[in-house]
Amino acid sequence: MPAAIEIRNLTKQYPVPLKREAVNAVDNLSLTVGEGEIFGFLGANGAGKTTTIKILLGLIYPTQGEASVLGKPAGDIEVKHRVAYLPESPYFYEHMTASEVVTFYAQLFGMKREEAKRKADELVDFVGLGGKSDRNKRISEFSKGMRQRVGIAQSLINDPQLLFYDEPTSGLDAIARRDIRDLMLELKRQGKAMFLSSHQLEDVEAVCHRVSIIHKGKLRAIGSVDELLQGERVEIRIGNVSPDLAAKLKTTAPSAIVVEGRTTFTEANEPDAVFAIMEMVRGSGGRIDAIVPKRRTLEDLFVEIVGERIVIGDGGTAFTASESFPTVASTSRGDGLSSSAVSSDVPHSEAFNTTEATIVEAEPGEDAAAANGAATATKTRRPGANKYKELNGK
After folding, report:
1. Which among 103, 282, 339, 370 could bridge 25 via Cys, Cβ 3.0 to 4.6 Å?
2. All structural domains of the chain
3. How far apart are CA 347 and CA 343, in angstroms?
4. Judging by beta carbons within 10 Å of its beta carbon (0-12, 13-18, 19+), is residue 364 exposed, middle or buried?
5. What is the pLDDT of residues 190-203, one digit of tens each?
């Protein structure tokens, strides 16, 4: 059976105004997503995620390389009937109820009104909006979490095999995020594949079997969550920290955090590094308060690869610059569904067939201009109130 998504040596270039050169929004990207898999596609703002999704949906064309969706070239008309896309902020008519919205879009798919109404009621119940308290509410009264549920219901109208979800939990509270995660896991149990682009790394870690990290258009890591997060780490808590010791720690361990000038938290994942930090602390008059084992997270890996720490704010997700770290990689099984970290810097044949670990290093001189404003949003005309009246005989 064909993979849900296959990308081979994909590159998308955009011209730079007033210059003769072009920048790569996506740079020689290769990856495979299996059928029935929730695949996490991670990266900082401007990393090339949206450009990649647009290519897979057939909204824009690549400069070079190939992309196939459900065994057909990306953008194939037949495939478009078997996929669905949920943007971060879906648009709905505020005066409608959830059932009316889904009914309306089901009719745009060609369903007769009665069939569309039955389908809408079924999907609204599935996403948890079928109760008395929600059924008669207008969209204008919905929270962001409820709107996302409506978006998921809308995305399921055509019973798609493959779902593209862009930031489905962004800006939601903890309970709403959990509910959306549960819905995604239920869709996986139904056999649907999902290409999940998200900044919420905790959610990605909870629902995805495999993830990839893209940085400045290039693939920096890909593999199963367990494989990518393997390895022991310890947190070293240090007291009596002088300014001189704090400066030394920041040089030796860039992840060191000084709290109120007294206690420092730093991390290490190699025994030699732990002993080196302990010797430095003792020699500088500091005090080791504790050495605590710590489970590695996707955010830790993200920081190591991208060199940015994720900060979640009230308005969504922001990224702040941090120190650059060498990235890590593990081994490939030799198939497209490998649980290994690889880089698009490695030739395609090596990246997907090597049996040895590949060490990937960040390229500090890389130009991020491709990400910043290169890919413009695709504008879509939305059906207006007249179309709604026409479909509903009003």
Report:
1. 370
2. 5-228+373-392 (3.40.50.300), 233-295 (3.30.70)
3. 9
4. exposed
5. 999 999 998 888 89
